Amino acid sequence: MSGGEQKPERYYVGVDVGTGSVRAALVDQSGVLLAFADQPIKNWEPQFNHHEQSSEDIWAACCVVTKKVVQGIDLNQIRGLGFDATCSLVVLDKQFHPLPVNQEGDSHRNVIMWLDHRAVSQVNRINETKHSVLQYVGGVMSVEMQAPKLLWLKENLREICWDKAGHFFDLPDFLSWKATGVTARSLCSLVCKWTYSAEKGWDDSFWKMIGLEDFVADNYSKIGNQVLPPGASLGNGLTPEAARDLGLLPGIAVAASLIDAHAGGLGVIGADVRGHGLICEGQPVTSRLAVICGTSSCHMGISKDPIFVPGVWGPYFSAMVPGFWLNEGGQSVTGKLIDHMVQGHAAFPELQVKATARCQSIYAYLNSHLDLIKKAQPVGFLTVDLHVWPDFHGNRSPLADLTLKGMVTGLKLSQDLDDLAILYLATVQAIALGTRFIIEAMEAAGHSISTLFLCGGLSKNPLFVQMHADITGMPVVLSQEVESVLVGAAVLGACASGDFASVQIRKTKHRAIK
Ligand SMILES: Nc1ncnc2c1ncn2[C@@H]1O[C@H](COP(=O)(O)OP(=O)(O)O)[C@@H](O)[C@H]1O
Ligand SMILES: O=C(CO)[C@H](O)[C@H](O)COP(=O)(O)O
């Protein structure tokens, strides 16, 4: 290149598969998001607590959004591709065709979603074993992890699914396989959701004890016997077929993936907070808690040494930030609970009409309505008589009790828009109190947390953010780049391309709410 001529810009594509939609972003070398697209994905609930998706529908949505974000770009400048996704279970046969995960035999629905609670009997039996691997999931395995779901398939769908199955993937690993043909699994998925140990590998005795000795017998080929750190480059990169699907060039680097919450954690936890007078300025990164809040909320705290927190997942080594232990607290439904409460209320149609008339989202309308009805008082006074217990889908952390149910106390006979707004506020407050409950458990076990870093769809809701600051008593830091999860995914692609040395913590620009 002659003097003065600029090097061509290098770009990376990040793809984030959430519960309700798939998002893609085109990101440059400084982590700036240049283009964004999203696309809804299908969810089926054929029975109560059974939640299913289609891996073909998800891949098709990945293709739509990727094609959109690279429009008008010289494809030769795109250096890498990274995926993150929810940790749903994808089932394929020996020829990599979808297999049904339902009694109806519908092979289109071949994904048991992370929030599926069908495997209650299986997880109870797994927990009764008191096997030592359970120490690394907070002492109690969650029904949302993969081992109980696999056992359910063996016990309930033997002929149409289990006996024919060739590959069980965590969704992030399915996506990297689909892009490259490489079946290697990410350390992130296997450590966090499959009982794999970064130091010791699979524990044969666990799988034998719970009745899934089949995996040991075939050397774990169906659930992964090649494991790579997130961001590692896979095979020869994008296959010609996947390149055609996605509208990219074959051979570009594709990374071993991350779970969505972990991509978000990586995207925000290293924020450069200088100049805000925040307590975490100058303190180690271990004083920070990343909270990734979408359909669910995930609370990611890291430490130099392992910390065992009853009811909080982990400690997991190198599953998010290389060289650090991770604890992951969580609330299984947060965004979904808020949507459920608001949409199920008698005044919801009126809310929709009024919000549309003002060209506002329903949440922006509700927030301004609360401002109006609280008058001169702090908003918290509106809920002195109304309280929500938010465990409508059980309690993930710190009680680790899937049998818990939700509760509302203080209901009146009226069902007008004021009541809806106040119920919405009480729900948001209950979720924030749940976060405080998780932080208290983490601190009692040895974490020392001073600042929250929020991202995900709910971090776009100012009321949600303010309630987290007020109720935890901690400042909340928000990224200037609202789609931090996608930046995390694109960073994976940059690592796989060799342009970034590692999935290092990002020092992105942020703003603080106190
Ligand atoms: N601008 C917004 N204001 C308020 N809530 C929002 C906004 N955008 C998204 N949400 C809420 O965030 C949740 C979805 O977050 P998202 O991160 O997209 O989820 P997922 O990754 O699970 O698909 C929904 O419950 C939705 O109501
Ligand atoms: O357990 C998880 C992360 O470890 C789930 O994947 C996550 O909770 C679902 O993500 P989202 O709420 O963003 O759809």
Automatic annotation (TrEMBL):
InterPro entries: ATPase_NBD, Carb_kinase_FGGY, FGGY_C, FGGY_N, FGGY_RbtK-like. CDD domains: ASKHA_NBD_FGGY_D-RBK (cd07782). Pathway: Carbohydrate metabolism; pentose and glucuronate interconversion. Keywords: Kinase, Transferase. Its EC number is 2.7.1.47. It catalyses: D-ribulose + ATP = D-ribulose 5-phosphate + ADP + H(+). The keyword DNA-binding does not apply. Residues 11-267 form the Carbohydrate kinase FGGY N-terminal domain. Coiled coil: none annotated. Residues 289-496 form the Carbohydrate kinase FGGY C-terminal domain. GO terms for molecular function: D-ribulokinase activity. Postulated to function in a metabolite repair mechanism by preventing toxic accumulation of free D-ribulose formed by non-specific phosphatase activities. Alternatively, may play a role in regulating D-ribulose 5-phosphate recycling in the pentose phosphate pathway. Can phosphorylate ribitol with low efficiency. Belongs to the FGGY kinase family. This is FGGY carbohydrate kinase domain-containing protein. The lineage of its organism: Eukaryota, Metazoa, Chordata, Craniata, Vertebrata.
